[in-house]
Amino acid sequence: MLHRKYFTRREALKALSLTIGIPLLHSLSPLGLLKNAYAAPKSRKKFIGCFWGAGADMPGGEDGDWNLNGALKIFRDLNLQNNLLLLRGVRAPLAYGDVHWGGTGAFMTCKRLRSLSEGEGTGKSFDQMIASANASKLGSLQVGWQDQDYHDSGQARDMGLTYINCISWKEERIPNRNINTPEGAFTRMFGGGQSNEEVKIQLLKRKSILDGVKQNYGSFKSFLSKSDEGRLESFFTSLRSLESELTNRLSNEFSCSNQPILENDGNQYRKQFKLYNKIIARAMECGAINVATVMFQNGIGDNQPHPEVGANQHESSHSAGRREASGIQNIQKIIRLEMECLADLVVQLKNSGVFSDTLILAGSNMSDGQNHNEANIPLLLLGEGSDLKFGQELNLANGNRGDRNSNRRIADLYMDLNKVYGLNLTSFGEGEMASTGQSLGIFT
Amino acid sequence: MRVWFQFLISILILLNGASGCSNGFSIKKNSKQKTDQSQTLSLDTTSSADARALSNQEYVWSVSDLVGKTYDLSLVKDWTASTQLSGFDSITWSNFNDKSVNDRLTTAEKISEDILQSSTVLKCNPKSGEDTVWEKCPSLNLLPFAERAFRRPLTSTEIQFIKKLYNDSVLQLSKEGLSQMSQYNESLKVVFSSLLISPQFFIKSVNSLNKTDVLKLNAFEVAERLSFLLTGSIPDEELYQSAKNGTILDSKVRRSQFERILQKNKDRFITHFFGQLFEFRRMNDSSDEIKKLFFEESKLVFKELFFSDADLTKYLSPGFTFLNKKLADHYKVSGSFEDSFKRVSGVERGGVLSQGSFLSITGVSIKDSPPLGQPIKRGLWVQSRLLCRPVGVASFELRQEIDRVKGTLNPSDPLHIRLEMHRNAGASCLNCHQLIDPVGISLEKFDEKGRYRNFYDEPTGGSTQPVVTKGELLGKTFDGVNELSSLLSKLTDFRKCMGERTTIFSLGINTGNRDRDFINGVSNPRSDGKPPTFKDILVRIIESKNFTLSQSEETRS
Predict the structure, then answer these.
(1) What's the DSSP call for residue B515?
(2) What share of chain B is helix, strand, coil (3-state, %, to 5)?
């Protein structure tokens, strides 16, 4: 295992002096065999999963631009390098033949994707396990840029678009789809800006509406076949969830005084995500949510020209585009912009005083889009504390990082993080995507 | 040596028959095949249809027809995109989640505001407080709306629910100090919103009530199926009456309703069906003005072809198109044009493969990417959308092989040479690309925006190169879009594919091997041996027994 350090010498010595015993033991041990020897990680309640599709500039699964001098330079510029743990040699879950689908839909579930005929679904995602264990007033928030709303020719006819537009699954059959506008995210977290009296009337009406729907659903249910009844349960579950949110709002137990200002920001990518960051940070600060997901791009990597780069992310990261200097420059620009938005999220969480209670996991569904390489995906953990190896780079591959067979499974990372959140999981994922029982060694 | 190599390739192609790239084309005549046999087709040849939620577009059209106000897709702009199957979002099943229910709630609240201004819906306006009691205006306004939204008579339980919801809301709002008229208006909005979020409204094609193998649809369900097929919306009054009196179960009545509804909804049908079948609907969502012109061109061409009963082959080679000045300039077609579209004959335009909509959907800019990708993308589209032979997902190992082969190509070689070298690099490449590349190459005289070109505008390796469009498929050589279209239109696979995709669209099923007989039946040539029209295919489907039946998913396995 290689440990490349971004600490200054002084910082590194200081950190070592705090935790010298156990890391030494670990450095002498074969990978994971002494996993029980780690210090108990610091407990956290908040989690943010970040994702973009189509990988980064990582030719053949090698580093390429994916380092602190390239795509991650912004973390150094903002003095956040010691909040960053860079993981190499971890492979995306190949839950379906096309890693665009499998590596996105199963990114946080590590379970097979069911076809539309089977009834779309995978498993409960890791973020939602945390949301269940750390209940909040509004559950969680999912935000993104834009959905892929059509199948390209040649793509699987029976595979739903949900899998490339969503990384969070509330339950096996209930995806948490993204809100794609800051206005929508703001309203969901803080309401529509009406007076208290107006809000009260609106909430009462909404509760009545949902009561009516529930009654209608009850009478409609008997008309359904067993399979359709099962599918429509997701509708009823969501109704109850929405009703519970309304009850929370009506009870006046929850209010956010420090709301961000919703600027009229047009559709500029950078502004949109920075506004999301503020909304998430403030919503976490006032206890509305403990969990969020941010999709900087859908699992395809967007087939539209990027608004601030002018090039198409998917084409720039893929096949012919990747061979051209212009294509490589474009994908570098796009990824650097996405990392700028990610770094800003850290800044906002710090400003809101919730970063010490939060871990951010950020990654993609592939490394090199050129050949859909699911090995050595770009993967980051962001947080603070001395319990995780922040400020370091871990190469976890047992050989060539670009070869999936030498890579570790991402499910093992979730099993490690399970200790941070006290989820008491005994395993994660299924089949070849399942956890192996061996720690990745991310703890000091 | 060359003969042995070709023999080896032939064997590999045969062995590959089960994959997505098998060469199973046939151009044989089908004059001896039975025609118009849909009436005799039995249900066990079809796959099941699941309960479907309205797609976003169907929701918009349905509420427009319910409320009597024209909404567009901006009404649902924040909604999650509809899931698609075989290119059609009319057979969607999306899992519901907190966001989708919340989106529906917010949208329903907006619509309920409009309903209070709608003379289509509100038949009774209270003149005094007495008129706001349930038996007066509320029931007169709410119950007919609910019946129309649910596409069937309400059950007594549903009527009681609606009444209770209205009365409970009035009671609650009275406690909040609202005036009697405000209580009435706000409670109406509560009930209208509730109805628009109820599954009875947004779910269609409900399956087996009794969990039996086969469900005979009732008259209301048959009317609903016909209406959503032709208009993407709820039945109109006349169709609903034919459901009420049960006559819609008679295939002759269905046929006459089919003709009537089509005549009444020409533009919507063309956008709904052909817009998805050939994907040109996507052009209308664009902010790019030229794409909106592509949309208009496609709509006008398919409208004329469909309503003039043109056979399937004409959709590839109609011999005409519709252009206005801006589009003619874009295509570099000379002549006298104005802002309005006019019919133009004798141009190399108008067919599915020479319309701006298809060419831009499958176009790849040289600026974004070298042109190798464009012919492959276009070839894949034709395989998937016109021949129903989607190419499978390339494995990681195959992608590595593709990458390796691409690395050996000389970028200064002409495109068709590079593609040929790529194709012949090994059997794993040849199997698929022998069917993909020639199709794409023959369309290279159209750039990614559908403009005509004789040379590649930008150097591909040092110098501007002429465009070559000669290809060979199934032992036949061809050059350019006209000869390609002519070849494709003669393929049995094209005819069957159009039959299959129309079946998927009409019945909402995910077709499989068990549907072969039905698909053959609906796509057979006419009794005079000529290829069928799309109307022939649709009529065969709606007159079939299958159109009045459904199967539960439990029977699929």
Answers:
(1) G
(2) 55, 5, 35
**What pLDDT does B366 receive?**
64
Pull the structure tokens for residue A414: 């979730």
Mean pLDDT of A262-273: 75
CB B417 within 8 A of CB A121: no
Contact A144, B81 (CB under 8 A): no
Residues from chain B contacting residue A150 (CB–CB below 8 Å): 81, 84, 87, 279, 282
Name which of A97, A206, A239 is nearest B393 (Cβ-Cβ).
Answer: A97
For chain A, what percent of residues have pLDDT higher than 70?
Answer: 82
pLDDT digits 0-9 by tens, B159-192:
999 999 999 999 999 988 889 999 999 999 999 9
Q: Yes or no: say if B325 and B348 are a contact pair by the CB < 8 Å rule.
A: no
Task: Look at residue B323 in the predicted model and tell me its pLDDT.
Answer: 98
- Identify the helix (H) or strand (E) that includes residue B261: helix B251-264
Separation of alpha carbons B186 and A23, rounded Å: 65
Give B-chain residues touching A182 at CB under 8 angstroms. Answer: none
The residue whose two tokens read 């200081």 is A14
The phi, psi pair for B207, rounded to 5°, reads -85, -165
Query: A315–B51: do the CB atoms touch at under 8 Å?
Result: no
Place of tokens 């156990």: A22
Residue spans of beta strands (DSSP E) within B230-315? none
Of B85, B197, B391, the CB nearest to A213: B197
Cβ-contact B538, B262 below 8 angstroms: no
Say if CB B448 and CB B456 are below 8 A apart.
no
**In the numeric block, which tokens belong to residue A90?**
């971890």
End-to-end CA distance of chain B: 49
- Distance CA(A99)–CA(A106), nearest Å, equals 10
| Over residues B373-379, mean pLDDT | 88
Write the ipTM.
0.78
Q: How far is CA B131 from the centre of its chain?
A: 46
End-to-end CA distance of chain A: 14
Q: Which of A128, A173, A207, A213 to mutate to test the interface with B (most CBs of B within 10 A)?
A: A213
